[in-house]
Write a structure and sequence with these properties.
Elements: H1 2-19, H2 30-45, E1 52-53, E2 56-57, H3 64-76, H4 81-107, H5 110-122, H6 124-129, H7 136-155, H8 161-179, H9 185-198, H10 209-233, H11 235-244, H12 256-264, H13 272-281, H14 283-288, H15 292-307, H16 320-330, H17 335-359, H18 365-377, E3 381-384, H19 389-399, H20 414-421, E4 424-429, H21 430-434, E5 444-452, E6 455-462
Parallel strand pairs: 3-4
Antiparallel strand pairs: 1-2, 4-6, 5-6
Helix pairs in contact: 1-4, 1-5, 2-3, 2-19, 3-4, 4-5, 4-7, 4-16, 5-16, 5-17, 7-8, 7-9, 8-10, 9-15, 10-11, 15-16, 18-19
Length: 464
């Protein structure tokens, strides 16, 4: 009874921490807005197979996270910043619960589970990614689920192995539908564990009936969307879209993650040297224990990320849970110390976020600009002239028009935009307006000027 009360209290506290003031934030930049906009276009168009952004096919990400945003939003009637971040917050909550259960099972004490879950919840990157409208936290949860269910199948009763392995491959498939081929990383990790465990005949596990069932489940999870997508778009166009995609473009030095992990695992990164020494001293024992699964998880993923030529700090996220689990094993008997650090960390992250929202509106420039624009529009059409795509996406989302504002710059001249749109207002950067000082159309007048990020935008109309 006491352990159930502790578990229930931990689960409730984790939920409160993750969801507190989740509705208080806007979508701070166009990258977050983009994910929400794709979901909104799914709802409006009724096209749930082929994602679109501003009317164009969007293949930077597969559709699973967009589905997770669009489903509750369709019931509510619109996509809000809260609903756009809801999949990330829910995923983080479930991930923390799984780590609590996993740590308790492997190390045999409730305190180990509490420390493992608490460390993950309160480290900087996990907490911050849980409150963003991105795919990374959902992917992290799906990797955790695929590995945890594999672990249950491997260590549990044989009669349940088919169930657990099947579910493990199912969540691997959902990870592929979230992040593409990288979603297979869970399969790679538990395959390495099987190699370590299997001796000379380890390869037979890959062609066992349990794994053959898993491959079937994986294929049935991923292939239907691929088939329907190609059927809607066409094979040649699908191949062209993939070839032209440039989403992977973030280069960083080879040692990038060796530096980044200290800040993103804070405040617990200070423990990492002690954890590595602790594991090294017990290496013979660890190699023969279930804890070796966590070591393989972290080391394999860290090496893959390091060797991959495109690097960014949020890719580290799935490598943090095994560190939290191993710290949970090391932290038995020191629960009070961990609790104090946990409370200070969570309080610090929430305070930082509160002042971030309250004192620096530049983190939500699109929302601020749209609120200032609305009194001037009053039913008139609004179009953009030489606006960059990020500005256009933010205005479209917060202004919530029935159709996206047209980018009139592609017509070449401002007057063409007014001729096409009729009674309208044009929004343009200051530099674009200054280039019209000897105006092509002398009837153009300035309605208002707006501060936007580090620039100025000018709203103009054409007098009758």
């Amino acid at each position: 009874m006491r352990e159930r009360w502790i578990a229930g209290s931990f689960i409730l506290a984790a939920g409160l921490i993750l969801f507190f003031n989740l509705w208080g934030r806007s979508l701070e930049n166009h990258d977050y807005v983009r994910h929400a906009e794709v979901a909104r276009e799914m709802i409006r168009s009724g096209e749930w197979v082929v994602p679109h952004l501003n009317g164009e096919v969007y293949i930077d990400k597969p559709p699973f996270v967009f589905w997770l945003v669009a489903l509750p939003s369709s019931l509510y009637g619109q996509v809000t910043p809260f609903l756009a971040r809801l999949p990330s917050a829910l995923s983080a909550w479930i991930g923390v619960i799984i780590l609590f259960l996993w740590g308790k099972r492997v190390y045999g004490t409730t305190s180990s589970g509490l420390v493992a879950g608490g460390v993950l919840l309160s480290c900087y990157q996990y907490f911050s990614q849980a409150r963003l409208a991105k795919t990374d936290m959902v992917l992290c949860l799906l990797i955790i689920l695929s590995l945890y269910l594999f672990y249950l199948g491997y260590t549990g009763a044989k009669k349940k192995r088919y169930l657990f392995y099947g579910l493990s491959f199912f969540f691997t498939g959902l990870a592929v539908l979230t992040k593409g081929p990288f979603g297979l990383i869970g399969f790679f990790i538990f395959s390495l564990f099987l190699i370590k465990e299997g001796g000379e005949r380890w390869w037979k596990r890959w062609i066992s009936r349990e794994f053959l069932l898993g491959y079937t489940v994986l294929a049935l999870t991923v292939l239907p969307w691929v088939i329907f997508f190609v059927g809607r778009v066409g094979l040649q166009e699908s191949v062209s879209l993939v070839r032209e995609n440039t989403i992977l473009s973030r280069h960083a030095p080879f040692y990038f993650y060796f530096m980044e992990i200290w800040g993103h695992f804070a405040p617990w990164s200070i423990i990492l040297p002690f954890l590595f020494v602790h594991l090294w001293r017990r290496r013979a024992e660890v190699l023969k224990s279930e804890e070796s699964f966590f070591v393989i998880w972290f080391v394999a993923l860290f090496i893959v990320l390091t060797l991959f030529k495109y690097r960014t700090s949020r890719y580290l996220l799935p490598a943090l849970p095994p560190l939290a689990l191993m710290i949970g094993g090391m932290g038995r008997g020191k629960f009070k110390i961990y609790l104090i650090v946990f409370l200070l960390a969570v309080f610090s992250w929430h305070v930082r976020e509160f002042f971030w929202i309250k004192n620096d509106l530049s983190y939500s420039p699109g929302k601020v600009l749209t609120e200032e624009l609305q009194p001037f529009i009053k039913g008139a059409k609004l179009f953009g002239f030489r606006l960059d795509i990020a500005t256009k996406e933010e205005i479209n989302f917060y202004l919530d028009p029935l159709s996206p504002i047209p980018m009139v710059g592609k017509y070449g001249r401002l007057s063409e935009g007014f001729e096409k749109e009729g009674r309208a207002l044009a929004l343009m950067p200051k530099r674009a307006y200054e280039s019209l000082r000897a105006p092509e159309d002398p009837s153009v007048v300035v309605v208002h000027r707006f501060r936007y990020k580090k620039d100025e935008l000018v709203l103009v109309s054409r007098s009758p």
